[in-house]
């Protein structure tokens, strides 16, 4: 593990490598305890580089077992090897030479899950960002592209399956026990896309014929006996492949495409060329064990990794500062894919909720960074919501600014111009500028400037003149190391909603560029005057969340209620309702802290009940209308001096008020949404279940007992409804016998299914009670919990820290200590997962003073520990700064 040495990497220090490695041949003699790796590198000195230039290869914890130059054992005086570097002081005179490097690894000892490791008996690799250097010494940087040939040798019983990138070339026996396979990937790629898998796995197979007629063999490898649960992933893969052809003109480019599911994985999945490796959570699903959310995630992530084949692999990043070049763009592509497969409006609302929940707090706290950062200590800490989700929003805005046709032309030009290259965000933007003839200089600040812009809006209608005047002002709050911000180009989609609910046409608009239903803010302040409006319209602004900004609108509740009922943009309807809920909850929180009675506006409560029952709307949308802002959402909107207990009480009170108001309707509606058809994971069915699940919580609250939830838990034929019912039982009736019994039943029934047990851990980790810290310590001792498996850690501790506001923020600091203890325990073997968990503290400064002090002490205690990993030191120090 790399200990922190305080080194900071800077974008402006980028320079090309002196050497290139056009070809690599790797031989793996696999053994769980010991693996010998022989790397033969064809090295090339770049033109113009002095022959005396040393060649420095990256390593991380490596043991050099042998080194030869052009086939001859290297002279010990010509090189220097350490665990993290191999320096050839003297290289051959010729511009091209060959290096043979042998390294010895211990895959079973690798619990950091970077490089080559063993998961449930399967050898697998994870190299992004800098894991390849844990396998062999290399120029481990994304702008060094090589053609790989990989030979794998292993025990035939232990590993009948031998996979690497590209196409299979050869396989055969070595002796009675061992066999081998050779793979060749003709597409030059950076080392972070290298992958190897060897083990004993089952498969589902299929085939796909590309638009131009290439036949591709598809396979998804999973543990034996789980093949049927990979069917949905396979279906998603084929739909993704077709969609990328139709929507982006991108075809697949190898003869095979393999996906492997492993159970120990630091992240969601990885796009290695021709050999994607997945967290099994994002492959395995069936009605009995997975929820609709799991199915939707599988569809999205299968698509995401597949789409990387063009946006990431064929065109990759010049350096890691450019991570959003592939991630933001690929998230945008997977969002569009899911929107096309399901309901566009509901998908958009889910995206915005996620952005607000994960990216806004990041952008508004100590870990804020631009979508394209300029410095980092540890790149693993930059796989963030800002790079991914805000990065996607920025691409979406490019489409909004240019329009669909120019956007597509820009993408086409990007693919054509940069195929096979490692490029920058500037190259990406330039393709859109060149294809459209538009200047995106101001727009590009979205990549370079951190922070969530705020837009303040006030409207004035003059009936006599028939004008609507809209005052708009932008501001960008300061973020760490960027105190002065420049003005941004903010595209705000809008509509002027007339009394009949239809968008009103206006005669002219002055004061800002207004085109195709979008107001383009470029200055600090714009006064936009719309004319030809005798009747007073209601301004619907930032439709579809066209810009990732916070809004301070002067509009009154009456206008919001109107938009929630009548806006033709479903996203805006939801937004209006959500803002009303948030405002009501903020004011209730204040009253609670002031010891006053809580009350909620009747129109708002009535509207929620009305929308839930409106059969003209999609069920999934109606479910969202019944979903109150989460406690963390309310906290974020309050922004300072936060008391999570008061927020919890306010939210519970609104839940109960709606439950009471819906008492007459909800049970009947819940029953009517049930059908006897077998479970299908499609959007319509998922929507019905989402609505039923929203209703069951209110029904249980109205009943004041677990009966309705217990009934749903007992009768559900799918995990979506079962898990939701269990959540209601455990969270609202934690002490009740029914709840305990239901929890025990799920545990007993799915004892052997870790992914279901994760849900069981998760539900309990979210119980809003001061007893939960105690329960957590107990659950960490559960036979199926393990600190070395990232899914278990995320399900139990991650959920507690990120999604249990009252218990994590226990007033006595015990929740913080629990999480900090876990961070420190993880840090020893898996710094990446440890550092990620530590980000749970990022909003500590916005807490009320007692909790703030507890959090500060816990952070300071972590900061002063000796020998912290680079990952954790980076997070803790930035959080405290
Ligand atoms: N490239 C992968 C994806 O988004 C994620 C890799 C994450 N790597 C990391 N070191 N955190 O599809
Ligand atoms: Zn990605």
From TrEMBL:
Key words of the record: Aminopeptidase, Hydrolase, Metal-binding, Metalloprotease, Protease, Zinc
Cofactor(s) required for function per UniProt: Zn(2+)
Q: What class of enzyme is it?
A: hydrolase
**PANTHER family found in the cross-reference section:** PUROMYCIN-SENSITIVE AMINOPEPTIDASE (PTHR46322:SF1)
What is the recorded name of this protein?
Aminopeptidase N
Its Gene Ontology molecular function terms? alanyl aminopeptidase activity; metallopeptidase activity; zinc ion binding
Give all residue intervals belonging to the Peptidase M1 membrane alanine aminopeptidase domain: 232-443
- A Pfam family (short name) is DUF3458_C
Which parts of the chain span the membrane according to its record?
none
Q: Has UniProt tagged this entry with the keyword Zinc?
A: yes
Looking at the record, the residues that make up the Peptidase M1 alanyl aminopeptidase Ig-like fold domain are: 451-552
Q: Tell me which domain of life the UniProt entry assigns to the organism this sequence originates from.
A: Bacteria
Q: Which NCBIfam families match?
A: pepN_proteo (TIGR02414)
GO BP terms, alphabetized: proteolysis
Coiled coil, from the record: none
Which family does the UniProt entry place this protein in? Belongs to the peptidase M1 family.
Entry's EC annotation: 3.4.11.2
As its record notes, the protein acts as a catalyst of:
Release of an N-terminal amino acid, Xaa-|-Yaa- from a peptide, amide or arylamide. Xaa is preferably Ala, but may be most amino acids including Pro (slow action). When a terminal hydrophobic residue is followed by a prolyl residue, the two may be released as an intact Xaa-Pro dipeptide
**Residue ranges occupied by any Aminopeptidase N-like N-terminal domain in the UniProt entry:** 92-193
Listed CDD domains: M1_APN (cd09600)
Q: What does this protein do?
A: Aminopeptidase N is involved in the degradation of intracellular peptides generated by protein breakdown during normal growth as well as in response to nutrient starvation.
Q: Which residues form the signal peptide?
A: none
